[in-house]
Amino acid sequence: MTNDEWAIEPHALLWEANAEMAIPACAMPQTTTDHDQIRRWAEERQGTPATVIRTTRPGQESSILRIDFPGFSDKGTLKLIPWVEWFRQFDERNLAFLYQDRAANGQLSRFFKLISRPEKSE
User: Fold this and answer.
1) Can you tell me the mean pLDDT for 56-83?
2) CB within 8 A of 45, min separation 6: which ones?
3) Global pTM?
4) End-to-end distance of the chain based on CA atoms, in angstroms?
């Protein structure tokens, strides 16, 4: 094999490896602010709206928002709240829901993160 052949072959192999390891679209993270979509995603995974107890200060009602899933090991650290309250705080804080529908292996994913909504350009 000549040096010119080696210069091309590694790029072709890299492309082939990436094509075989392509991440399914359902495994790619998505972002939404749609309450129905968030609630549906959580309930499909038996998740319930909650806040982190230790982050609530006296005289304040808000704390860190979470979704509690079955099997969570620190049950005593979360306070379950109604969806209406969870979404009120979600909107007041101008949050967005970053989530993964399915893992790369096809199983339902519980991955989510609450992020700031992007600034709207005027």
Assistant:
1) 80
2) 69, 108, 110
3) 0.71
4) 58
Tell me, letter by letter, the H, E, C secondary structure of 54-82: HHCCCCCCCCCEEEECCCCCCHHHEEECC
Residue with tokens 């230790």: 54
Enter the tokens of residue 43: 């309930």
What residues contact 81, with CB distance under 8 A and at least 6 apart?
Answer: 49, 50, 51
Q: Rounded distance, CA 57 to CA 51, Å?
A: 12
Q: What is the mean pLDDT of the chain?
A: 78
CB-CB neighbours of 70 under 10 Å: 9
Burial of 68 (0-12, 13-18, 19+ CB in 10 A): buried
Q: Which amino acid is at 21?
A: M
What pLDDT, on the 0 to 100 scale, is given for residue 85? 94
- The residue-averaged pLDDT of 61-79 equals 81
- For the stretch 38-46, contacts whose Cβ atoms lie closer than 8 Å and that sit 24 or more positions apart, written own/partner, are 38/87, 38/90, 38/97, 38/99, 39/83, 41/97, 41/99, 41/101, 41/112, 42/67, 44/108, 45/69, 45/108, 45/110, 46/70
Q: What is the pLDDT of residue 106?
A: 86
